[in-house]
Amino acid sequence: MLTRVSQTAHRLLTTPENTLTVTVALTLLLLLAGGLGFLVYVAFKRQPANPPKKFRQGRAPGTHTVMVAFGDSITHATLSADWVGALRNRLGPGGYEFVNAGLNGHTSADLLRRIDEVVACRPDAVTIMVGTNDVRNGIPLAQFHANLDTIISRLQARTTARIALLSATPLGEDPAGPANQALAEYNAAIKETAERMGVSYLPVHEAIVGHLGQGATAPQFAFSFGLALRIAVRHYLFRTSLDDIARSNGLTMLTDHIHLSDRAGQVVADLVASWLGRRGLNPSAESRLGG
């Protein structure tokens, strides 16, 4: 019986018409799998532009100020507006070099483990933005606070860099929602750490919330990997802008309740640019910085 079935299957698969059908189907499946794999790589796995490992090959000619942006996916920017790239485009011609040390999914503990790669860049300035993944992963507030202390103290001991702590970006666009209420404690820890340890505090969270529509009903926080993947398809395959994606999801400053639209990325870039000018890292550039 099995032999007869096998012979029938063999005849079906080896006729010219069916062979062509199977070949086309397999080719389409391989293309789909390859395309999906490439999309996952581009959206989740690829390195940011000018990561620490690449930068350590040497400063670009004419560089007078190196800033390392240290953080998670909001800094990595494969699924979020590239505020580090915006700064590079704006200030790079004036002698600034920006190193992107952001990695998707990282928490304060991950940043602490990666501190050596930041130190090795011998930066003049370091921005640190972390916290959303600590909240989402249930990292205890006390542990988060201790991690921040250690990150700052090690950077102060091993570099001469000016340091800025940035408040963590919102979790959804409802400031009164449960996710942002939980995040508020972590942002309070960020601000307290900055004041106590003598580093700058940049109110990124507050600035983004300030751009949200007053009185509007925000969708409930509903991030998922599936949503992020759909956004990656729209952004990388269909070239839909992050602002348009945010609007289609009923949002303004966030695309998927976590990652930044282009509008929100500009808010972060403006705050950091202004800080660079105020800190006197290159006084002659202040007119370009707008700060």
Which descriptors apply to this entry?
single chain; 291 residues; alpha/beta; Rossmann fold; 5 strands; Lysophospholipase L1-like esterase; Ester_Hydrolysis_Enzymes; transmembrane; SGNH_hydro
CATH domain fold name of the domain at 46-210 and 264-286: Rossmann fold
CATH superfamily of the domain at 46-210 and 264-286: SGNH hydrolase
Q: So, CATH architecture of the domain at 46-210 and 264-286?
A: 3-Layer(aba) Sandwich
**How much helix, percentage-wise, in residues?**
55-70%
Question: First CA to last CA: what distance?
Answer: 82 Å
Q: What kind of sheet is the major sheet? A: 5 strands, parallel
CATH class of the domain at 46-210 and 264-286: Alpha Beta
The H/E string reads: HHHEHHEHHEHHEHEHHHHH
How are the strands ordered across the major sheet? 2-1-3-4-5
Note the beta-strand portion: 5-15%
Structural class: alpha/beta
Extended strand count: 5
| Residue runs with pLDDT of under 50 for 5 or more positions | 283-291
Alpha carbon gyration radius: 23 Å
- Overall mean confidence score, pLDDT: 87
Shape: globular
Written overview of the protein:
- This protein has helices spanning 2-14, 16-45, 52-55, 73-76, 83-91, 108-113, 115-119, 132-136, 141-158, 178-197, 204-210, 225-237, 242-248, 262-278, 286-289, and strands at residues 65-71, 96-102, 125-129, 162-166, 200-202.
- It has 291 residues and is of the alpha/beta class.
- It has a domain at 46-210 and 264-286: Rossmann fold.
